[in-house]
Design a protein that fits this description.
Structural class: alpha+beta
Largest sheet: 6 strands, mixed
Number of strands: 13
Number of domains: 2
CATH architecture of the largest domain: Orthogonal Bundle
Helix content: 25-40%
Number of helices: 8
Distance between the termini: 40 Å
CATH topology of the largest domain: Phosphatidylinositol 3-kinase Catalytic Subunit, Chain A, Domain 5
């Protein structure tokens, strides 16, 4: 089993980075890279980058926090590793935290974004959510909407959900949940902003299978009465933030836990009392 957080500084200056514009419309780019190591493809992702400020934000750290949250809740997902490293971008070196993940495709798998697959296979008048339920992916969508409410994921667009088709078996399934960077306090660039952040605000979100309201999407997930994650408990805070002291200031940790815990209580209240 891989060590989740590598705190010793890694020399990753050999990686070459490609830019992916933020789909949220805010300034900056996400930089992605990949390599093959011991026969396995590894994907790397930086937090937001711009040429003036370098690598900023906590998107890569968010991936680790949400990875751990999903493990606590017993929800299948892509696993991440958080690395402390030196990278080279545009000829300049940056010491930062970045995340790495293995390729989730099995031998024989091909992938397609959900929005593309939906456009190809939908019935007349069928919504994305109705389409997913017809495919037998209702529980997957419920779990995703719950998680996205807990972390206030602002970016679950149609390409952040991928569909895998195995050419050997013909099986078609959604990929494990991945890409949770634009969530939690990603928009807070100072401790003062983090302190002032309203963790219960229902900020506008992108959600291909739901609405612009994360709270409304939670209600949608609970309408089927079959959502049964493992319970979140106060002691799980230590699990979420283990070995992140150097990567994430305590102010952010406190506020992120407040967000997740208070939103979990909303989920429990709705699920138990309607």
């Amino acid at each position: 089993m891989k060590q989740q957080v590598i705190r010793d500084l890694q020399d990753l200056r050999y990686l070459e980075w490609s830019r992916v514009r933020k789909t949220s419309g805010t300034a900056g780019s996400f930089l992605k890279s990949q390599e093959v190591s011991e026969g396995k493809k590894i994907y790397y992702k930086l937090s937001c980058y711009d040429s003036e400020h370098g690598v900023t934000g906590h998107e890569s750290i968010n991936e680790m926090i949400v990875d751990r949250l999903l493990s606590v809740l017993g929800i299948p997902h892509l696993e991440y590793q958080l690395l402390h490293g030196v990278v080279r971008v545009d000829g300049k070196e940056h010491e930062t935290w970045l995340c790495a993940s293995d390729d989730f495709k099995a031998p024989g798998d091909s992938k397609i974004a959900l929005d593309e697959y939906y456009d190809l296979e939908k019935l007349p008048g069928e919504s994305p959510r109705e389409f997913c339920v017809r495919q037998g992916w209702g529980s997957y969508i419920q779990e995703m909407l719950l998680v996205d409410y807990l972390i206030l994921n602002r970016d679950r667009h149609g390409a952040n959900i991928e569909i895998l088709k195995n050419r050997r078996t013909g099986q078609i399934l959604p990929a494990p949940l991945f890409d949770h960077g634009l969530s939690l306090l990603y928009s807070c660039h100072s401790e003062a902003e983090a302190q002032a952040f309203d963790v219960m605000a229902d900020l506008p979100v992108q959600c291909f299978v739901g609405s612009r309201s994360a709270r409304d999407n939670l209600e949608l997930a609970l309408a089927e009465k079959s959502l049964e994650p493992r319970p979140l408990q106060q002691r799980d805070r230590a699990v979420l933030f283990r070995d992140l002291e150097e990567a994430l200031p305590r102010v952010y940790q406190d506020k992120i836990w407040e967000m997740i815990w208070r939103r979990w209580q909303v989920y429990e209240d709705i699920s138990h009392h309607g």
